[in-house]
Amino acid sequence: MDMIKNPGIKIIESGVPDEDIRTFRKCLSQFATGVTVMTASNGTEMAGMSVNSFASLSLEPPLVLWSIRKESASLRIFQEARHYAVNILSDNQADISNLFSKSTEDKFSKASWFKGILGAPLLNGVICTLECSLENTIDGGDHLILIGRVKHYTRYNGTPLLFYQGRYGVANDLPAALMKQASLSKEPVNAPSTPHLSLLRRLHYVSHLISSRFNTQRQALGISVAEFRIYGWLNAQTMTEQELQECIYLSQEEIKDALQAIKKRQHLEYQDTQKIHLTKTGREYAMFINQQVKNFEANLIQGLDKNTLETTLGVIDSLINQAKSA
């Protein structure tokens, strides 16, 4: 049978899911989703876990759904509670997502929360909560699909945290879409680069634009975003998988896949079964990548006033230090 191809776009991977579950998972990660933390309490125990399988199912009646692995230690609590809460995370809560993606038992001691109407913990700082009774469970392969009836909802100001291709992101309006809106309304609409944007949105937007430009060079190297970040962090130090996850804000699966790919190149080794370090050839490759970054940055800042650049870098460093100490 002839393959129908997408003209002009390079195929990265293609195959049958049963033959390579890892690359199939990468294919699914092309679909961007919001990030939620599902919480529940059975009266004596609490459960919380990061989930991106959440979806709206019906408005009348108000039904939502999400899925949980059958071997998950939290499944019992969600089933016993007969209710749960959907906490939709804001774009500054990647650390909360990482916290609730772990299997540690003291998650709630490290998060700010309060008790909801149905008894489930509700997280502070989110952009929306949905408190649900457990309506039904459906078998879904290695997962169970939990259907909930929304009993109470609360919406807050804020923008959502997104997850795609194994990493976090934020939503930005496309300049072209804004200009089209302006032409239809006959009224001026500010493009994302204009002064009306807050500091946070400017930082998000410039990061998105620059990262998109650099992605072309990264893809030419044949490495993923996770591999690129891991080479950078391991170039000067040894780290555990957990430490990498906390530094580069990627899913555990994405990090494991990237480490496996780097190991196949014989670019890394495990030290004392926990610590990971680059081999000699791995460090050489990391230095090569670093030089590509320097070349990209040199072209990026070409023509900028030196004093303006130094001031900008100083402000960014100050923001980083303040964010760390907050």
Which structural traits does this protein have?
Arc Repressor Mutant, subunit A; about 325 residues; Pnp Oxidase, Chain A; 14 strands; three-stranded antiparallel beta sheet; about 40% helix; alpha+beta
Write the layout of secondary structure elements.
Layout: H1 21-28, E1 33-34, E2 36-41, E3 46-51, E4 55-58, E5 63-69, H2 75-81, E6 83-88, H3 94-100, E7 113-115, E8 121-123, E9 128-140, E10 143-155, E11 161-164, E12 167-170, H4 175-185, H5 199-221, H6 225-234, H7 241-248, H8 252-264, E13 268-271, E14 275-278, H9 280-301, H10 306-325
Helix pairs in contact: 6-9
Instruction: Give, in spatial order, the strands making up the sheet with the most strands.
Output: 3-2-6-9-10-5-4
Count all strands and give the number.
Answer: 14
Derived from helix and strand composition plus strand pairing, the structural class reads alpha+beta
Task: Tell me the count of domains.
Answer: 2
* CATH architectural type of the largest domain: Roll
Unreliably modeled segments: 186-193
**Number of helical stretches of at least 4 residues:** 10
Overall helicity: 25-40%
**CATH class group of the largest domain:** Mainly Beta
CATH superfamily of the largest domain: Electron Transport, Fmn-binding Protein, Chain A
**Biggest sheet: strands, sense, closure?**
7 strands, antiparallel
